[in-house]
Structures are given as structure tokens and as C-alpha cells.
Design goal:
Radius of gyration: 17 Å
Helix content: 10-25%
CATH architecture: 3-Layer(aba) Sandwich
CATH topology: Aminopeptidase
Number of domains: 1
Strand order of the largest sheet: 1-2-3-4-5-6
Order of helices and strands: EEHHEEEHEH
Oligomer: single chain
Structural class: alpha+beta
Number of helices: 4
CATH superfamily: Gcn5-related N-acetyltransferase (GNAT)
Strand content: 15-25%
Length: 185
């Protein structure tokens, strides 16, 4: 068993989360990466970002209120999500897994635009990540880095993660890494 090969979609009111890469907007992602509150990321040249997306398992968060399929009264999609196209959605969030799709996944680049925060969308995005990763019977590690206490608490609660001891190798495995030239926190 591995990560899904067909796109997975979740809807909540006027919002959509999807693993369908056709909806992703490299321009929107780079615009978000350029914001001050995205201190852990920097924009990429668009061709590089397209390669990053191509080689990752991605989740996009979208506002679908302006779409013709979205009911004006309740914001719910009236037709299958598969009927949407990229022009029908506004990308407002993103997350990606760097993964072999079976044993390992590294969660990175997770964000919801500032003007959409406070609506539970970030937590919902984390829950969607968990929904596709949790059933993997051969998963060895789901990992990430964060430097925000609020994010740490959310990942602990929603994904069951814990801070890995980075201490003495004699006390057990240690996580190791080297920061690349592209920066990040």
C-alpha cells in the first residue's frame, strides 16, 4: 500500500483541499513564499518550483466561492469536485510531502494565506495529510521541522508527532541534517 495515485478531494463549505496537481498555481505558491510571514520559505524560479511540485505529493487549499458550481446560499459545491478546473479555484494554501510514497514522508511548505487564517483551514489541511499517511502499513517516518510553538502543538495533537531527541547517540538514534544554500528555518 502506498500514497494514493488518484487525486483525493475534501470539501468544507466554500473550501476545497485536493491532491490534484492540475489545480496548483506555481505563481500563487511563489507569491505566498515571498510574504514576510512565510519566514521559512523563499520563492523559487518557476521552472524549479514546477519540478518541486512534480516530485512531491502535494495538497492544495482552494477558495471555490466564486466558482459556478458553488451554491450562493450555503457555499457547498453542487457537482463533483472533479468537474472543477484550475480557473475555477483560488489557491489559498499548500502543503507537500517529500516521499517515496511507502516508507517515508517529510512534510514541508505548509501554509494558509494570512487573510484565510483563523478559520480552521490549517488544522483541516494537517488532518487531510494525516488521512492519506496514517493508513500506510510500511511507513517508517513522517517528519517535519517547525520553529513555531503553535505549530508544534498542532502537529503533536493532529499528527501524533513528538519532538525527536537530538542528544546523545549513546541514548538512541539522533536526527541529523545539513541546511542547504536555499535557506529556510
Amino acid at each position: 500500500m502506498s500514497l494514493p495515485t488518484d487525486p483525493v478531494h475534501w470539501t468544507r463549505g466554500e473550501f476545497l483541499i485536493s491532491t490534484d496537481k492540475r489545480y496548483l498555481s506555481p505563481t500563487a505558491i511563489n507569491h505566498a513564499f515571498a510574504q514576510d510571514y512565510m519566514y521559512w520559505a523563499k520563492p523559487f524560479p518557476e521552472e524549479i518550483l514546477k519540478k518541486v511540485i512534480e516530485n512531491s505529493f502535494c495538497f492544495g487549499v482552494y477558495d471555490i466561492r466564486s466558482h459556478r458550481l458553488c451554491n450562493e446560499e450555503n457555499g457547498h459545491s453542487q457537482q463533483p469536485v472533479e468537474d472543477l478546473n484550475a480557473a475555477d479555484v483560488k489557491q489559498i494554501g499548500f502543503a507537500r510531502l517529500v516521499t517515496d510514497r511507502v516508507t517515508f514522508a517529510y512534510l514541508t511548505d505548509l501554509y494558509v494565506l494570512a487573510e484565510y487564517q483563523g478559520r480552521g483551514l490549517g488544522g483541516w489541511l494537517i488532518d487531510c495529510v494525516d488521512e492519506v499517511v496514517r493508513p500506510l502499513p510500511y511507513l517508517r517516518w513522517l517528519m517535519l521541522r517547525t520553529s513555531a510553538a503553535k505549530s508544534q502543538a498542532s502537529y503533536e495533537t493532529r499528527l501524533g508527532m513528538k519532538v525527536l531527541d537530538t542528544g546523545d547517540i549513546d541514548k538512541g538514534p539522533v536526527m541529523m541534517g545539513r541546511q542547504g544554500t536555499a535557506g529556510g528555518v
